[in-house]
Amino acid sequence: MISQMSENQINYHLVILKELYLEAILSGRKRIESRFMKTRHSPFGQVRPGDRLFLKQSSGPVCGTATVSAVKNFQNLTAGQVLEIKQQYNHHIGGADKYWESKTDCLFGLLVWLEDARQIEPVRIYKRDWRAWVVLTDKENFGLLKMCAVKPSK
Question: pTM of whole model > 0.85?
Answer without folding.
Answer: yes
